[in-house]
Write a structure and sequence with these properties.
five-stranded antiparallel sheet; 263 residues; four-stranded antiparallel sheet; globular; Creatine Amidinohydrolase; alpha+beta
């Protein structure tokens, strides 16, 4: 990093944001299918197969496949896995928690989103963890307005999580800018100080993705060089949406429900 360098953030026209919405809807619809179809007895490779079939049906291109050598079109992170879990022959069991991260490209524009799926009869802790992570994500999305800062967004996220004083906020992995590339400037931390950091401008698009743990926030990377787990073995949840900064406020490009897409 060059000291003092201001991130070169891509500014989109309204027409380009409309194109990103098309990619976002592919992502949102695919994750909806995955949520509907994922049950105990399936493998995480089966989840990848659902996404591949939907990509083929829509003609969209996967964002993740072959990205720095990544071998799948989704990330499937189970239980204490935080992010970047590689689909394999692991069979989902009743009580598991699986976070599914997925990205797609349409006409050169990316969409990126993640959901946490509760398999069967899960613990109260798992339910609460997924719920607080999702609520924190939406707090961040609502703060993604022109004139606000990234510190405002991170503070909104952290305020939801820290209100219960029982969860950890992963610091090593954060959100990001998105557009003609999946990962762009700026980095979007899930914590921050109001008024600090980059000021959001019309035409920016960012992916907001809190990763929250049931224990400490420290993580480790497994020998596959991808899968990130909690260091203490506690559960983790991950929710993500892509949002554009528009004149009418945040437009959540990967949210299917129009009543929620513009919070």
């Amino acid at each position: 990093m060059i000291f003092g360098r201001k991130p070169k953030v891509q500014i989109k026209t309204p027409e380009q944001i409309e194109k990103m919405r098309v990619a976002g809807l592919v992502v949102g619809n695919t994750l909806k299918l995955i949520q509907q179809q994922t049950v105990a007895g399936m493998t995480t490779l089966d989840i990848d197969a659902i996404a591949r079939a939907e990509l083929k049906r829509t003609g969209a291109t996967p964002s993740f496949l072959n990205y720095h050598g990544y071998p799948a079109v989704v990330c499937t992170s189970v239980n204490n896995q935080v992010v970047h879990g590689i689909p394999d022959n692991y069979t989902l069991n009743d009580g598991d928690l699986v976070s599914v991260d997925f990205g797609a490209i349409v006409d050169g524009w990316h969409g990126d989103s993640a959901v946490t799926i509760l398999i069967g009869n899960v613990s109260d802790e798992a339910k609460a963890l997924s719920d607080v992570t999702r609520r924190a994500m939406w707090a961040g999305l609502k703060a993604a307005r022109a004139g606000n800062t990234l510190g405002d967004v991170g503070y909104a996220i952290a305020s939801i999580v820290n209100a219960e004083k029982r969860w950890g906020i992963v610091e090593d992995y954060v959100g990001h800018g998105i557009g003609t590339e999946m990962h762009m400037d700026p980095s979007v931390p899930n914590f921050g100080t109001p008024g600090q950091g980059l000021t959001l401008e019309l035409g920016m698009a960012i992916a907001i993705e809190p990763m929250i743990t049931a224990g400490h926030h420290h993580t480790q990377v497994l020998d596959d060089d991808w899968t990130v787990t909690t260091l203490d073995g506690q559960l983790a949840a991950h929710w993500e949406h892509t949002v554009a900064i528009t004149e009418s406020g945040p437009w959540v490009l990967t949210e299917l429900d129009d009543s929620l897409a513009r919070p």
